[in-house]
Amino acid sequence: MRINIATLGTRGDVQPYLALARGLVARGHAVQIAGPEQFGEFVGSAGIDFAPLPGEFLALLDTPEGKAAVAGGKGFSAGFKLLKHVRPLMGRLLDAEWDAVRAFSPDLIIHHPKSIASPHMAERLGIPHILASPLPGFTPTAAFPSPLLPMANLGPFNRASHRLSIHGGELLFRKMLREWRFSTLGLGKRRAGSGPIATLYAYSPHVLPKPQDWDDSVGVTGYWFLDEGKGWTMPAGLGDFLDRGDPPIYVGFGSMPGVDPVRLGAVVVEALARAGRRAIVATGGGALEIGDVPSHVHVLSSAPHDVLFRHVGAALHHGGAGTTGASLRAGLPTIICPFMGDQPFWARRVAALGCGPPPLDRNRLDVAALAGAFAATGDAGMKDRAAILGRRIAAEDGVTAAVEHIERAAAGCGW
């Protein structure tokens, strides 16, 4: 099959799809990833065809407006605050996605939930599409509410809450989508095509079990790990730091923008000292900044989690789905300080599993709270639970399970 994978967002929204693409190529399929132009080298270096899409959405997070939205947002509210900046960019994105898909002539489209154009393009081409997501929320269930909501349980309203995730994008851009369907795709202004032939969730059922009210078309496959560490050489300074004491704590907030990086860095450094712990601090997207680096801290820009996490004793991060999966697979007690989106959901889930302390409130984070969280990761019971969960996740092969699910679903459509 010829398969177009469409994804939008930060690196955490691209990396698992690259792992999936490699799995599909290994099975003999031709695959193209259409994603933000910033990831062209990243995808291309893995030998996967790449179609660049406008990168303004990703760049928006690093603007003053983007940082302000993240600073004041919880759950999906940050996205709402950026809508007035996003709407003017949508037309160009829709056209770029269509150009990429049309040029590739796929038999199947696999898409991230943020690619709201994908079902419409599949309808125009008369081909099936599959929804693939790192987080749940796009299949109604009574088991839990939408991960984009800040509540842990809505009781009888859990199932209805998922409509927010399923239809939110279409509702926000309804007028634009209708006009684009008519003027560009030559379709009626209302979508007549059927829904996805399958839905895939790229997380472990040991972290969040598949609800009983989901049918066989929905797969909770396990994480789609890329594992970039093969061939990576640990810098000498990092190796020396590791050799000087007990396994440190990993501290990093991935692609999250720097809201007040100097203050956050100072809180981390002082909290580590108060808890008597060492740390490797990954500055990543700029959320953290360490000025004078003390002896109990080692700073790096980034490192492959599949290698680095073997050398640490716990982790503090933002709670992105991929980073959460990586720290849990490594068997690490995991502290989550969420910034936005689905991150509070994973923070609550890790705490419920007993593999980390309660989530930290980034807007109220102080030295005492963070030092307490660092100390909590030394609890023997928490360490045992994290180790058991890590072994279970490590035994899974999420990419293979996803590829097999895709092939079964496509075969059922005659492809």
Condensed summary:
This protein has 415 residues and is an alpha/beta fold. It has 17 helices and 12 strands.
Number of helices: 17
Count of DSSP E strands?
12
Helix content: 40-55%
Q: What's the main sheet like?
A: 7 strands, parallel
Q: Overall pLDDT, averaged?
A: 91
Q: How would you classify the helix and strand content by structural class?
A: alpha/beta
Ranges where pLDDT stays below 50 over 5 or more residues in a row are: none
What is the overall shape? globular
Q: Could you tell me the strand content as a percent range?
A: 5-15%
SSE pattern, N- to C-terminal? EHEHEHHHHEHEHHEEHEHEEHEHEHHHH
Can you give a write-up of this model?
- The chain has 415 residues and is of the alpha/beta class.
- The chain is built from 17 helices and 12 strands.
- The strands form 2 sheets. It has a 7-stranded parallel β-sheet with strand order 3-2-1-4-5-6-7, with helices on both faces. Strands 10-9-8-11-12 form a 5-stranded parallel β-sheet, sandwiched between helices.
- The chain is globular, with a radius of gyration of 21 Å.
- The protein starts with a strand and ends with a helix.
Helices, strands, pairings?
Layout: E1 2-6, H1 15-26, E2 30-36, H2 40-44, E3 49-53, H3 56-60, H4 64-72, H5 77-81, H6 83-104, E4 108-111, H7 118-125, E5 129-133, H8 158-172, H9 174-185, E6 198-201, E7 218-220, H10 236-243, E8 249-252, H11 261-275, E9 279-282, E10 297-300, H12 305-308, E11 314-317, H13 321-329, E12 334-336, H14 343-352, H15 367-376, H16 380-394, H17 398-412
Parallel strand pairs: 1-2, 1-4, 2-3, 4-5, 5-6, 6-7, 8-9, 8-11, 9-10, 11-12
